[in-house]
Amino acid sequence: MATEGLSSEKEDVVLRLLARVWGTLSPELLRALARLLRLPAVELLVIRQRQKVREVFLVQNPSDALRFASRWHVAGEIAQLSDNLVKDTLWRIARGIGCPDLAEDAELLGVVYSKHIYGGEMHCVFYVVVDTTAEEEALRRTEGKWFRVDQLPKPFMEHQRPFFDLLQYV
Predict the structure, then answer these.
(1) What percentage of the chain reaches a pLDDT higher than 70?
(2) Is residue 1's pLDDT more than 50?
(3) Using only C-alpha atoms, what is the Rg of the chain?
């Protein structure tokens, strides 16, 4: 669900508070809320090349997340109304995965509209190639992991799979 200016962690807090007032939140209610509070998702596809094999850096949602629990995914956030530029959102994403410098080199790869159980979202997909030891080391200290693009882990957020089709243009 795309919500106005909330990170996924803050969004979970809001949904938990709403659940206390209204009880269990159905997918229908979540879809209705998403239609009212829609902003695009900004995704940062972090890639590297290892012996002619392209790999992607993915993060995993916590097992108690209200949406997409335990699923691996491309690092991303919902754009905030207070963001001056998409670069503000990219900087928050890169900082969240432990390597804020990645935001400076990110380039737009494409825009993808996806449908999932909570409705639909527009994703502005950016990519950055990790090519320095310092960047590798910063990412190594985080919760994310590297996976071959052709061997994504399970469970994976399937609505993000089209992002990888765009890599043929890189």
Answers:
(1) 78
(2) no
(3) 16
**How many domains does the chain divide into?**
1
Average pLDDT, integer, range 72-90: 84
Under the banding of pLDDT at 50, 70 and 90, the label for residue 2 is very low
Task: Please check whether residue 82 lies inside any domain of the structure.
Answer: yes
Range of the domain at 71: 40-169
Tokens of 4: 């106005």
What is the CATH number for 122?
3.90.79.10
Establish if 144 belongs to a structural domain: yes
